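Hi all, long-time lurker, first post. I run a small reading group and we've been trying to get comfortable going from sequence to structure in the token notation. Rather than ask abstract questions, I figured I'd post a concrete chain and ask someone more experienced to write out its structure so we can walk through it together at our next meeting. Sequence below, copied exactly:
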Amino acid sequence: MGVTWASTVISLGAVAGITSAILVLILGQSRVLFAMSRDRLLPSRLARVHPRVGTPWLDIAVIAVAVAALAGFVPLDALSELVSIGTLVAFVVECLGVLVLRRTWPDLPRAFRTAGVPVVPVLGMLACGWLMLDLPVETWLWFLAWTAIGLVIYLTYGRRHSTFAECSSSGAAR
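-- Answer (accepted) --
Happy to help. Here is the structure in token form:
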């Protein structure tokens, strides 16, 4: 359209958006690793917090190194597609979780309620599924590979060490 200053503003906005998304990923994923290791799905060493600042410093370091390696060796478009499929699958699982929990544990105390159940969660799953269908085959293959790696880690380590496995073997879990 001949408005070159607008492309500069949009590019700056994209860089700011990607930077903030990466920072949120590092902080959020470090807390996921912390919770998983606290539940003994991962080695308990990752559940330690820094004595002075109270953060899971080792998890933050591990995720920062992983993100830096991915940023250095994987093209940005491929990374954005992988983040997209991961986020969309997480949303599908969340929507499915709402439906399952409403049916299996209807009296469970909830911090918030979802309006329009089951319509809203079903529409959420369909919308995310529609968006996932538009992603390239390579993204799906990488997603399946990462899922397989996670499944192997769970089956070889997490399943035997988790606190949930301990509770269910003692009959304490539902």
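A couple of things your group might point at:
Helices lie at 4-38, 57-73, 76-104, 119-133, 137-161, 163-170.
The CA atoms of residues 40 and 85 lie 26 Å apart.
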